[in-house]
Structure formats: C-alpha cells, structure tokens
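Consider a protein example.
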Amino acid sequence: MKKIATTTFLLFFVFAFAQQKTIDQKVETLLKQMTLEEKIGQLNQYTGDNTATGPITINPNKQDEIKKGLIGSMLNILGTKYTRQYQELAMQSRLKIPLLFGQDVIHGYKTTFPIPLAEAASWDISAIEQSARIAATEAAASGIHWTFAPMVDIGRDPRWGRVMEGAGEDTYLGSKIAYARVKGFQGNLGDVNSVLACVKHFAGYGAAVGGRDYNSVDMSDRMLWETYLPPFKAALDAGAATFMNSFNDLNGIPASANTYLLRDILKGKWNFQGFVVSDWGSIGEMVNHGFVKDNKEAALASITAGSDMDMESNAYRYNLEQLVKENKVSISLIDDAVKRILRKKFELGLFDDPYKFCNTQREQKELNNPDHTKIARELAAKSIVLLKNEKNILPLSKSLKTIAFI
C-alpha cells in the first residue's frame, strides 16, 4: 500500500509540474509575439464608464484601445452582458489576449454579508471562508475574474476610516482570517466558481499617522514585521494570486515605488509569483505627494520597484515605451510584469474560453440562491457582540425604561 501511495504522489507531482510548465511555455511563446506596446497594454487597467467605486473617468478611445490590445484589465464592469461585450472587443485584437475583469467584492456580491470587521468578531474562521466562497461564486457568475479583497491591514487607530474593511487590531486573528478569505475566494482556481484574490494594502496602510487616510506611515522594522506583515504572509501562504500596494508612504517612500516592500520582501524573501496592482491612481498620486515630478518619473519608480499593473493612472500607458527607448527601464522588467499577468489569465482558463465567466443562466441562478441568504443571516447572528452591563458600569438612570439599540 505504501508503495502505491508513493507512486500516486509522484505521478501527481509530475502531472502538476507538467501543467505548470505548460502554462509557462505558453506564456513565453505568447510573449515572443508581442510588441512593446502590446506588452505595456497588459500593465494598463481602466475602469468602466458606469458603475464605479472611485471617480468616473470617461475615455472615448477605450474601445479602440481594447481592440488594439492596449488594455490588459478593467474594473467596475458588472454583469455577464457587459463583460462579454468588452471581451468581444478584446477578441478583435491582434493576439486576442483576454481582458481580466476586477471588482471590489468586500463583504458579499449580490448577497450582503456582515462587514469584514463584524465577521472577525464571530471568530468563526470556517464561516468566514464560506462567506468568501459564496461571494466568489456570485461574482464569478456575473463575469468577474478578480476581487480586490481581502483587506488584511491591521487597524489599531479607531480614527482611521477603513478599519471596518479588515479584521481589526489583532495580528494572530487577522492572519487566520486572511488565510481563510483567500482560500474562500480562490477555491479551486480555474473553475467557474473561483476568482483571483487581491491582498491589500501592502503595506502598513492601517498605521497612517493620526488615522488620516493616505497619510504617511512611520514605523520601525520590528513593528512592521511583528504586527503588520504577518497577515500578508498568511495570505501568500494560502496561495494569493495578486497583491495591491497601498496609498501611503512607508518611512518616506510611497508603497507604489517601495523597493523594500515589493522587491526585497514580497518578490524576494517571500518569492511571490503573482502580480502587484496599484491602488486607484496611486502611481500617479506620487506626483501630488511630491515624491516625483511627473507621471513619467512615477512610471519609472513604480515599475523599477515592482508594481506590475497601473490602475487608472495612465502612467505606464503613456510613459513606459519612452522609458525603455531611453534605456531607463530594462525590457526584462516589462517582460517579468507581463508574464506574471498572463500566467494568471492562463490559470483562469481565459485563453481556452474567453467567455468562460459569461453564462447568463448561471448568473441568474447564483444571484438568486436562497441558501446564500440563509448562510449570510447565520453569519450575521454570529457576528453580533452583546456586552453585559455588569456592576452597572454604564451611566444609566435606574428609572430609565427604554434604550434604543442601533
């Protein structure tokens, strides 16, 4: 029996290695066919023109750019009807490289689950993983390939406006939840009920000075490694496909261009094989922060540091080609970023079937599943925390008859 088990394991290992090698070979073959402009296109992400979690940015040339292979990913395109329309445009491009559709799926998609902070209060790790699984199933059924979640930032300042998106102040609990949510979102990556997870915001975003969003972060290496990085490492250990850099600077260097965070730690020490996407406009915002003088310098700093995809800055779109021609950016940096993105598109099966996530019948079924509502209600009950007024610690009058609990 032992010999059979060992043989089975070896066959499984060889098969898995062969599958990965096949994807890598396909990526290399495709890369050799791409022009520099097409490569840079894969590093460029635009938002849709209708539903948005950020400002609406209207680009009248968007459809033509997709047809030319100058856009690699889009966000805020909801529903199979619309994702299919955009994917059909991509299939008119020279190399027919499919688009990757991303979306903020923070606490459920159609079915609303408790906010992540409330889920954390349940301490029910399996239930939290299940909520992510359901969210992934519904999002994938609506044509989404990629969720910008989980947010695993440790939040210890109640003034910070995004505390509710994470698991709170505890590093241990935050790490357990980060691992569970990645597993829930990604499931068996490549099937039609799973989406790519995006772990955010790397790193230190929850420690903004004074709790002011986008503010600077000033911390020791010990604080970074002991408190703020463990949830990110747990998410990576769970197989997280992508990371998102944060808006803040860390000790004076913006995360979008922070070599220590992105190359030394994430892609170096941790050997992360996925890709890094910027937060909304965070590469271009380095100009506003005074770190660089213009988008060209921002593009140079970010691609050098290890940010692979530019969300909504257009810094890569309009500057990387010139930077390569000026020998300021090595083509190997561009190729590495492109390969990371293409690999995820292959792993999702989008090259085999670009419309794999565009089934309207499945969309109707999954977005109207009563079992999902039942599970969400059960998790909501587990997330409620009631505190007992022991020894009358609260300043309540003995004659008080009614309290509004909101």
Q: What stands out?
A: The chain has a mean pLDDT of 93.
